[in-house]
Amino acid sequence: MKPLKVLHVVGARPNFMKVGPVHRALEATGAAVSVVVHTGQHYDAKMSDVFFRDLGLPEPDHYLGVGGGTHAEQTARVMLAFEPVLLDEQPDLVLVVGDVNSTLAAALVAAKLQVPVAHVEAGLRSFDRAMPEELNRLCTDALSDLLFVTEQSGLDNLRREGVPDAKVHFVGNVMIDSLVAALPKARAAGAVERLGLPPRGFVLMTMHRPSNVDEEAPLREVVRLVEALAARLPVVLPLHPRTAGNLARFGLRERLDRIPALHLVEPLGYLDFLGLMEAAAAVVTDSGGVQEETTFLGVPCLTLRENTERPVTIAVGTNELAPLDADHVAARLDAILAGEGRKGEIPPLWDGHAAERIAEVLVAWRRETSNVSS
Known about the structure:
Layout: E1 4-10, H1 13-29, E2 32-38, H2 49-55, E3 62-63, H3 71-89, E4 93-97, H4 101-112, E5 117-122, H5 132-143, E6 146-149, H6 152-160, E7 168-170, H7 174-189, H8 191-194, E8 203-205, H9 210-213, H10 216-230, E9 235-238, H11 241-249, H12 253-257, E10 262-265, H13 270-279, E11 282-285, H14 289-297, E12 301-303, H15 312-315, E13 319-321, H16 326-340, H17 354-373
Parallel strand pairs: 1-2, 1-4, 2-3, 4-5, 5-6, 6-7, 8-9, 8-11, 9-10, 11-12, 12-13
Helix pairs in contact: 1-7, 1-17, 3-4, 4-5, 7-13, 10-16
């Protein structure tokens, strides 16, 4: 039997942490070969290339360079660029991860060409269709032949949506695989020391969702929040390109620059960000994956969103939702500093071995489909 040929598709930073462990686990089986396609959805080297280095991923076999644009433009560009790669490579399976535009675009192209699709991080739902990511999740899961689930809510959602149980596999969280593997290097990288920060004596903050940074009123509240937090502890804020651009557009960058306790930095590599996250007193974010990483690390996390597609981080972990309200979030930070933050536990199967379980399923699937075809 020929080795299983898997085409991995990545487009944005969260994808890299999910593909890396699966790529390595498949190669370790000796029964599969991997081809990595980077769509270029995140096209800033600081937002993309450095993650390949930090995670020990090989150079992509194909780089599509699609860049930015509206959701429709970006999705269409990925589809147009990905189709000839898929036709040329002729893989047995296309593996997509997460919920970005590249995920949906690649799944749609593969399904139309009748190439099986596997979705890592399937079944997550925010139940908010105003989020582009929610539409990407729903459509990708509907197109997928194998659905790999990180938490119980994913199983419940897919069953409610009528996905056959035979397609669904509860394997755990590959993001945690990357975290476990990288944590010693992250500690050794010394980002906390380079910034002169006391362990457990600073706040790490990320802010990039359109609902928080694309309009002037919420972005002004973000700036007011940074001021409130920095009055209590030093704040580290890596600036996402979207956030940086909107701060300049609305004339708010100088106000941030005047905050003495703020460390305003360029987008960080995975190791530096992980090292800061583990050492933070608390994390304030609107990200998805950060909710999971802080839960594993036991670090209190305030997520500035109305909903989350990762409810296990609230039910079991250290995460809590908060409104974009500077006074409310500052009060919650005060409570955390007083020892009243969520202690949390590590969710089931978040043990650093999710990718191995995925590889086992894929190799078995290959064996079964080969037997059927023969």
